[in-house]
Amino acid sequence: MNTNRGNSSPSGGRSNQNGKPAHQGAKPAQPVNRFLKRVQSSMRHGKFAMPCVALGLAIGAGALYGGGLVSVPGLSARRNSSIGGDLSSPSPASMPSSNQKRDVSAASTPSSNQQTPPVFGKALKLNSAASMLPHPEKEHRGGEDAYFIHAGDYCIGVADGVGGWAEVGVDPGLYSRELMSHALNLLDDVESVHPGVPQRILEEAHARTRARGSCTACIVCLHEGQAHASNLGDSGFLVARDGTVAFISPQQQHEFNFPYQIGSPDSMSDSPSKANSHVVDLRPGDIVIAATDGLFDNVFPDEAAALVHLSKKKGEGPAEAAAALSKYAKSRALDPKYLSPFAYGAQQMGYRYLGGKLDDITVVVSYVDEHGDAQ
């Protein structure tokens, strides 16, 4: 994720609650090279908000390629779940099988007591899997996104590291991966899920994270037939029902391409208390998609809902659905003539921008099932 900071944002405007740029009247169109130069200028002057990453990334080369220990500042635990596949090219075969308990992606860091957490919510469960496609230029470090999938079938999360930190020699993926690792460990200690859990987990994970950096984040938990979520920035989630969008979380942006983000004390970031909280009624058969902006900048919500619905209709599991959706997003990101959601937003702000927006793409797909259903 590349984001802009302060008045150096290309838009110079605020966004409305649905995440689309606020219309400020007609502006003279500006060539895309000027659009990009303003981004670069903001980075040189220290006004570029450092991007955040989701936990689907490995917390180190050992974790990324199957090493036994996952290590981040202040954390050390052995993984007890399978990796989300080769992050540069996830395939359904390499994803966690649908009959496994999955607690996190490659960067997962479950608590050291290794206990299987209780399943909360007596009626419904989340049958989840993930897919990650790092930006080609970031594959060598596993990208900058991160995610987790809790073993209790009731909670998922994504985060997107602010890429601008690379300009000052900081791996933008460190912050998001550590944040998601703390969130996962905190969930292992939750005795019962209630509506305030996602926000409390986000705030406590933020307080424990010591890495330099910043990120957007979204945590979704299941409780008594409802999805309870805390979302900060332009990562987010949607609920697909029968191939249509039943709900999508609004983006939080200070200005176009400048989302809210949490981070280290030197990051000029927002407070986690600024996160939006959401409650959505769920039904068996619904599909929850949590993702970073690599998806939402390139795939319209109705497309995403239709694609996962088609995957499920064909008998595919959440791993196949997530892989198909992430691959579709990447194909759109690479299309220079596509009027992507990001391009639409840029044009609304008066910029001549066409095409997708190449970025890390992280997608967690959760099938909402009844307890007792075959996974």
Strand content: 15-25%
Question: Which structural category fits the helices and strands?
Answer: alpha+beta
Give the CA-CA distance, first to last residue.
33 Å
Radius of gyration: 19 Å
The H-and-E topology, N to C, reads as EHEHEEEEEHHEEEEEEEEEHHHHEE
Describe the structure.
- With 375 residues, the chain is an alpha+beta fold.
- The chain has a single domain, classed as 4-Layer Sandwich (Phosphatase 2c, domain 1).
- Helices cover 23% and strands 25% of the residues.
- The chain has eight helices and 18 strands.
- Strands 2, 6, 7, 8, 9, 14 and 15 form a seven-stranded antiparallel sheet that branches.
- A hairpin with a 5-residue loop joins strand 6 and strand 7 (155-161).
- The chain is globular, with a radius of gyration of 19 Å.
- 58% of the residues are buried.
Give a quick precis of the structure.
With 375 residues, the chain is α+β, with helices and mostly antiparallel strands.
